Automatic annotation (TrEMBL):
<keyword id="KW-0658">Purine biosynthesis</keyword>
<feature type="binding site">
    <location>
        <begin position="164"/>
        <end position="166"/>
    </location>
    <ligand>
        <name>NADP(+)</name>
    </ligand>
</feature>
<comment type="pathway">
    <text>One-carbon metabolism; tetrahydrofolate interconversion.</text>
</comment>
<comment type="similarity">
    <text>Belongs to the tetrahydrofolate dehydrogenase/cyclohydrolase family.</text>
</comment>
<dbReference type="GO" id="GO:0009086">
    <property type="term" value="P:methionine biosynthetic process"/>
</dbReference>
<dbReference type="InterPro" id="IPR000672">
    <property type="entry name" value="THF_DH/CycHdrlase"/>
</dbReference>
<feature type="binding site">
    <location>
        <position position="230"/>
    </location>
    <ligand>
        <name>NADP(+)</name>
    </ligand>
</feature>
<protein>
    <recommendedName>
        <fullName>Bifunctional protein FolD</fullName>
        <ecNumber>1.5.1.5</ecNumber>
        <ecNumber>3.5.4.9</ecNumber>
    </recommendedName>
</protein>
<keyword id="KW-0028">Amino-acid biosynthesis</keyword>
<dbReference type="InterPro" id="IPR020867">
    <property type="entry name" value="THF_DH/CycHdrlase_CS"/>
</dbReference>
<dbReference type="Pfam" id="PF00763">
    <property type="entry name" value="THF_DHG_CYH"/>
</dbReference>
<keyword id="KW-0378">Hydrolase</keyword>
<dbReference type="GO" id="GO:0005829">
    <property type="term" value="C:cytosol"/>
</dbReference>
<dbReference type="InterPro" id="IPR020631">
    <property type="entry name" value="THF_DH/CycHdrlase_NAD-bd_dom"/>
</dbReference>
<comment type="function">
    <text>Catalyzes the oxidation of 5,10-methylenetetrahydrofolate to 5,10-methenyltetrahydrofolate and then the hydrolysis of 5,10-methenyltetrahydrofolate to 10-formyltetrahydrofolate.</text>
</comment>
<dbReference type="GO" id="GO:0004477">
    <property type="term" value="F:methenyltetrahydrofolate cyclohydrolase activity"/>
</dbReference>
<dbReference type="GO" id="GO:0000105">
    <property type="term" value="P:L-histidine biosynthetic process"/>
</dbReference>
């Protein structure tokens, strides 16, 4: 039998705790504030930004929404980030990705103050993570670690295989896993014998961006499978990177899509905003 890991329920519990922390901060004269910059009119990005704003409001986090045109120049965007870095009322800054193609995402990430880095993607913060001195952390990998802990799925000494090596998920998650004594393999599109390698995993994390790519041939009996992907099929149906029907009954634990990792990403963003506000005292 496969246990479905309920990200919605865990995220709701976290949000309830965060609302209490936000109230404490407000009583100390600090109103946590998250600045969200959206460049252009990408429909998916607009939905993500709206969801983040809604979550923040429920917790008691103020949001500063800054919507720029798709034609915004790099210099203009960097000037805005500089002004937010210098604004003491703003505790966390998030630039919604992807940016229009003419903008340099790396330069934009580097421009955000590490002390206001809501996404935890600044090279300085990633460096601290790899040195096992975590500060601001990437939200999706952090959410995965919290889900595993919530379900008492031990990581120390386990074989962890991560399929996907992005700066957003694969690389930082590998560091988090190593920091808690897992044995980690990071696989990717050039990896040979991928199903065979994946089948060695006690914990298999899939972040490929390819709909239902991983089926039961990749999964060891009794493994935990974390599906990070979210893909919309032609019939508008949302699926992950794992073929849920194929893996159910083989995996001991599985995150569904939707309702698994996704809600945790936003919950961790809210938690990080509060932590950055606390550190600003």
């Amino acid at each position: 039998m496969t246990v479905m890991i309920d990200g919605r329920q865990t995220a709701a519990k976290i949000r309830s705790e965060l609302a209490k922390k936000a109230e404490v901060l407000k009583n100390q004269g600090i109103t946590p504030c998250l600045a969200v910059i959206l460049v252009g009119d990408d429909p998916a990005s607009q939905v993500y930004v709206r969801n983040k704003k809604r979550a923040a409001e429920k917790i008691g986090i103020e949001t500063k929404d800054l919507h720029l045109s798709a034609q915004t120049a790099q210099s203009e965007l960097l000037e805005l980030i500089d002004s937010l870095n210098d604004d003491p009322s703003v505790h966390a800054i998030l630039v919604q990705m992807p940016l229009p193609k003419h903008l340099d995402e790396n330069e934009v990430i580097n421009a955000i103050s590490p002390k206001k880095d809501a996404d935890g993607l600044h090279p300085k913060n990633l460096g601290h993570l790899f040195m096992n001195e975590p500060q601001a952390l990437p939200c999706t990998p952090r959410g995965i670690m919290v889900l595993l802990a919530e379900y008492d799925i031990g990581v120390a000494g386990k074989n962890v295989v991560i399929i996907g090596r992005s700066n957003l998920v694969g690389r930082p998650l590998a560091a988090m896993m190593i920091n808690v004594d897992a044995t980690v393999t990071v696989a990717h599109s050039k990896t040979k014998n991928l199903p065979e390698i994946a089948k060695n995993a006690d914990i298999l994390v899939v972040a490929t961006g390819r709909a239902e790519m991983v089926d039961q041939s990749y999964v060891k009996k009794g493994a935990t499978v974390i599906d990070v992907g979210i893909n919309r099929l032609p019939d508008n149906h949302l699926v992950g990177d794992v073929d849920q029907a194929s893996v159910t009954g083989v995996a001991a634990y599985l995150t569904p899509v939707p309702g698994g990792v996704g809600p945790m990403t936003i919950a961790m963003l809210m938690q990080q905003t509060l932590e950055l506000a606390e550190k600003s005292k």
